[in-house]
């Protein structure tokens, strides 16, 4: 299993590189000035844990697809490029200057502007270039997906999943930014429910459920099997995102590659925050509402909210939820009638998704 | 011909509406809060001249495709959605508050924030929502394109054109914003060449050459015919964009739906601007460089540059170029061995593209 997985990752990286080489060749015919668009996509997608590609691969294998099939590799390429596109625009939306421990794409264009001594506003240029680079990467993901062939043609289950995944993640991201601005005016009682909707659509379905189903659908899995896969993958994705939420507040910048308390400065109204609003004292809630979403938040402010999240029981409630989702997910995996290699691989991926530190 | 074109437009509008209805249904399952994303796409794509869809349709017909074929209608839907996505992100990049005489998409979200009394920064929310809406619209265009069926499957000529169109327009847009910031430091001698590259890739190929070729390719046109089509459509697209550039500076806000001199405030370094740098006096060039790209530019400043563009001969040079491109395009159309209905339709579209006031 480990050997097969490592061979898959090698094939994935090679295919992704070849794809970007072809694109680089095509756009360099337009002008050499276009090179930074491709370079920044390449740098971004060369990193990452390949979780979505691996879930698609093992979904494909679990549904009876052949080992190291080119179709499954291409599906991985499409998913990694889609993830790249989502991250590029996400970082503009969240004004995140770093990603995976390096400058985010829009920041790299702002830096290029500064280094080159160009005119007008470097940040505005960086944002504009980032929007276009994300669009290009989104188009690439589709191109890679279509190139899988008849298994992803119009009307197929795989195409339906890919379409749904894209629409859901964009809708989920919108609900996320909407909650940042509208959340304080909405009911506290509904906050946890709204946070769950965001985490399900913005992240859980897209990070685990859809990639796994996509791989399985390409291998020809019937609907019943896809439903059984979801019983494993959806709670896993929810646990994965809750772990992400915890790391976004309590994570160590040295391992996450993002500044401490980043999610708080960005004003993310995660389940963690919803629980603090429900469980916290009046003082704690007042502090939270005064600070959340303000980029000027000091490290002491971050430390204050961290303490409140712990003392109020909000952190404990989220950790309990991660635990129970993980258990539900593991049980559903055990109940799946699949070969041992994919089962072991999915088990390992699931552990890593929930236990991770970055 | 006019009757067929009007039946096509009706079929296009109905199919586009049905497509958006299905998407609305899908995302409203997530949350009713997502409705404004779909609403803003619908409002945007309900406007416009349908030029790209019509070019694809008549390209399809000229290459022997059947009248009012569903494939050609779907190609029009995909192109209109792609154009919508490009406009949404373009308006964020250019900070344009209006589009087609109404608030641009990101502006409509900024307005929604204001009306709703939400927290944090309305403009930032508007931009973020606009980025996501554009991404959604871009995904929709691909979904519509794939649904055409085997004629747009991976490996087909139509798919190759669609992929190339997307990459070229994004690369061209990047070169456009790059020239805004880097242009002042680059050689005056090279400015016209750089402006031509931008207009070709950002606009000409995407507005006319690729839509026409796409329709023809779906109908099974051989490469030779596509090349002969390009001799008509590429100069037409260049003339179209040069007309756009002139309207961006000299257009009447009442008919363009955009503020007077918008392109100057945005700092667009069009061929018009390149010619002024080449042909203008030292004073004129100094004025231009001091004002271009500054949102604070007064109406008097706009009037000053307009005068300089006329007096220097820059406007005349661009008008001469529009004329010669139109002639080349018309000659190439005459030489095409196609049926009379598509020829007449393409002739009428070409006239409208170059003579328009908005």
TrEMBL record, chains A, B:
CDD domains listed in its UniProt record: Trans_IPPS_HT
Could you tell me the superkingdom of the organism this chain comes from? Bacteria
* SUPFAM superfamilies for the chain: Terpenoid synthases
What UniProt keywords apply to this chain's record, in alphabetical order?
Magnesium, Metal-binding, Transferase
Positions of transmembrane segments: none
What protein family is recorded? Belongs to the FPP/GGPP synthase family.
What Pfam families does the record tag this protein with? polyprenyl_synt (PF00348)
The lineage is:
Bacteria, Bacillati, Actinomycetota, Actinomycetes, Micrococcales
The record, for Gene3D superfamilies, names: Farnesyl Diphosphate Synthase
> Which named protein is this?
Polyprenyl synthetase family protein
The cofactor required is: Mg(2+)
Q: Coiled coil located at which positions? A: none
């Amino acid at each position: 299993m480990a050997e097969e997985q490592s061979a898959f990752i090698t094939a994935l990286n090679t295919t992704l590189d070849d794809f970007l080489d072809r694109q680089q060749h095509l756009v360099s015919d337009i002008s050499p000035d276009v090179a930074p668009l491709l370079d920044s996509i390449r740098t971004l997608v060369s990193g990452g844990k390949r979780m979505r590609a691996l879930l698609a691969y093992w979904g494909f294998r679990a549904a009876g697809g052949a080992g190291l099939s080119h179709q499954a590799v291409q599906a991985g390429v499409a998913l990694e490029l889609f993830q790249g596109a989502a991250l590029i625009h996400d970082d503009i939306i969240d004004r995140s200057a770093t990603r995976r421990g390096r400058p985010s794409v829009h920041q790299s264009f702002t830096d290029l502007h500064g280094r080159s001594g160009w005119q007008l506003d470097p940040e505005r240029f960086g944002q504009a270039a980032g929007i276009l680079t994300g669009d290009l990467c989104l188009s690439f993901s589709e191109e890679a997906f279509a190139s899988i062939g008849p298994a992803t043609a119009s009307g197929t289950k795989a195409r339906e999943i890919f379409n749904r995944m894209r629409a859901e993640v964009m809708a989920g991201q919108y609900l996320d930014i909407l909650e940042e601005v509208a959340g304080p005016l909405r009911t506290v009682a509904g906050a946890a429910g709204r946070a769950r909707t965001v985490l399900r659509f913005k992240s859980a379905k897209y990070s685990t459920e859809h990639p796994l189903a996509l791989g399985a659908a390409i291998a020809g899995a019937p609907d019943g099997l896809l439903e059984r896969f979801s019983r494993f993958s959806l709670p896993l994705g929810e646990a994965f995102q809750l772990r992400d939420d915890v790391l976004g507040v309590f994570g160590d910048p040295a391992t996450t590659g993002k500044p401490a308390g980043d999610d708080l400065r960005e004003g993310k109204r995660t389940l963690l925050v919803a629980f603090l609003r429900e469980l916290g004292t009046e003082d704690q809630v007042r502090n939270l509402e005064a600070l959340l979403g303000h980029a000027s938040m000091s490290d002491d402010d971050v430390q204050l909210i961290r303490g409140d999240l712990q003392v109020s029981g909000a952190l404990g409630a989220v950790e309990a939820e991660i635990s129970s989702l993980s258990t539900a997910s593991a049980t559903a995996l055990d109940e799946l009638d699949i070969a041992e290699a994919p089962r072991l691989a999915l088990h390992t991926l699931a552990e890593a998704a929930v236990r991770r530190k970055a």
